[in-house]
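Can you give me the bound-state structure? Components:
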Amino acid sequence: MNPSFIAALICVASVVALLQFFVTYSRSVIAAYQKSELSEQVREVAGIDGERVRSEQFWQLVQLVRLCPQKNDDQNDLAVVRVYYRMMGWLGVMARSIAPGIYKWAESERVSCTYFAAVALDRRIAYSRALLAQQMSER
Amino acid sequence: MLGPLDYGLALASFVAEAYLVVRLCVSKNALRYFFLNIYMLAAVVATITQEIALRHFGVASPVYAYVYYYTDPLLTIFLFFVILSFYHQVFQQMGAGKYVRWGSALLLSGTALLSYLVVRRVPTHQGTAHFTQFVIEMSQNLYFVGVVLTYLLWGAVIKLRETRTRLIQLILALGIFFSAEAAGYALYNLFPSLETNFLKWIPPVMGTFLPLAWAYTVTRIPEGARLETARVATRGSVQQMAAHQHS
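Here's the bound-state model for the whole set.
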């Protein structure tokens, strides 16, 4: 069999597998944050009205997360979810007119990413408060 | 010529590999993740050997090429053992250890036979360029075997409703590593001109990603953490897409 043909087959199958593994990996990272409830404080800081977050708030929340002191346990998760959010954005743009079902799914994934960022912000705010309280008690 | 990014990636992967070995030993999980530990130790030794070859002979020397391209398939074979240990963990509760052992023996025999056939037709008399091309083709095939094995394992995880978050994330990171490497080597075979700008970064980036992702998983996710597999599986995503399509 032609080696180029085998290489092309391997390339296509591997790219499909890579996408599938990456999507699943990102969803497993996000799923760990889905169970957490958002505090009133983070809703106020991020301007979240009602029960649901909006997907457009993602970058704003990421900016706020960056302003908080690092907790060193969510850096990798944030990096993965940022890439996943971008990927879902591209998928949504491509599918908007030709496949509304895929577009809606990509949008719901972007909402999950935004919720993840809100929970990360919530945790970092709680961490900052704990740090501040510790410093106050040491004085 | 290697740049600061090459050295940065090599250092990051080296630190993550060494950290993972120490971390698993300290947390008394060395036996549970025995093959993962062996792979990480082998990766540390390979990094040191490559560094020595690089310093003594230079990046363009045949010695460095031989060291690099021989250690890479060897590490891939070590990774097959890691996959087998994950199979063992997934099928442990079903009492299917016997079948996993048979599967391991079959895989080992297959790998040994393939390696023998491969080594027999190594074009040693035709120079480094032919050798490099030959090893790239072999790496592409070995990594693709890794993709298939990891994909089957992921299928078993979903089918058996495995919920251990740590195991799930270790397997998924391995899947990302194998598929990116296989796609990279296959693209190199198809379009060698892409190597200078883009493809040359895939092995070091993925070589850093895997130990980092594993170190992160082992550190962050406790052994007892559970995850609903149906929530994260892409099959579930397809069903969600279909539901959105009908709504």
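A couple of observations. Residues 15 and 21 of chain A are 10 Å apart (CA to CA). Chain A is about 80% helix and 0% strand.
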